[in-house]
Amino acid sequence: MAGRAQPSGPAASGGAPGLLPLLLLLLSAAAIIPRGDGQNLVTEDVTVVEGDVATISCRVKNSDDSVIQLLNPNRQTIYFRDFRPLKDSRFQLVNFSNSELRVSLTNVSISDEGRYFCQLYTDPPQEIYTTITVLVPPRNLVIDIQKEIAVEGEEIELNCTAMASRPATTIRWFKGNKELTGKSEVEQWSDMYTVTSQLVLKVGREDDGVPVICLVDHPAVKDLQTQRYLEVMYKPQVRVSQNYPVQGLTREGEPLELTCAAFGKPQPTDMRWLRVDDEMPQHVVVSGSNLLISNLNKTDNGTYRCEASNAVGKSHADYMLFVYDPPTTIPPPTTTTTTTTTIPTTITDSRAGEEGAIRSVDHAVVGGVVAVVVFAMLCLLIILGRYFARHKGTYFTHEAKGADDAADADTAIINAEGGQNNSEEKKEYFI
Fold this sequence. Notes:
The chain is an alpha+beta fold. It is 20% helix and 38% strand. Residues 1-38, 334-358, 394-399 and 419-431 have low confidence and may be disordered.
């Protein structure tokens, strides 16, 4: 047994000859020490990252000057009191007293993992063990991407591999600040684990230049991650803007200037203007991304389209042109002194222009109605005047009624004044 072969350790280490009989006696006794939870011995398990330092401590609660020794998993004596029989310079004495034996192990490797025994030579002898666990961080973290350059709408596959770790690592995915879910597979090689996580991602234009991060959760390492930036190609995004008139109506006789802007990846190289469902008017001037009509007329009404294309595809944006009448001033009615003043109004869009045009038409209608009313009143006054004048003539005519049939002047006067009674009165008056 390995534990029983330990007496040759001190002699091999070149120890003093006087200590040899004592060591042989003690090590022989160690072979028959029962294993258990010694009530007077205390130790703790140790977890260490490969390459770091592990510290093993054997402590005695109530010391009675008994001998303490430390053995490796093969039952070879590492330290007997403050003496190191094992020829492994990685073990170094940190502290020795009647109540503690503390030993450090530098440059820990996987082969150092296992149980280490603390022994106390009391009556009866006591033994307790501590376990060293060695953690191995992933030796490599790599992201492989199915396509270096993707097209908008495609699904791409990314694989992140964490190699040779112990225990098996956990892989997490992030796109920007958003965590995504991948599918992991674990392969074991001897005491090591290789983990591969697969992520399937549908990309859009908003993903261009966004980092995809592969992050490792492992007790042996902190903040271990790698990332790849997505490169996504997408067709152009087109926008038409009106330079002139600025936020105003497009009126007949005035100029119009439009600008087309296109953005895509790759940047669009082919851009053109056309008129939908009709030919482009001959007086329209197209210069690169600009379209200019110097003198608008009603025949220009229609939809003007700007098209842009790149290696991915083609896109367009439309501008609907409606030419309004030029502004006019309504003359005042001839029968009234009312003056109508047209106040210019700033129109922000085509709908507002229509409302302004309707508002101008309303002013014209109101002016016409006022003129008609004034004219009707004048006509009514004339008719009433003629009516009253006519009735007054008839009154004077009745006053002389009967004078035409009289034989002489006196009789005519009497008849005109209303009959015999009046005649008598007149006669009396003349007498």
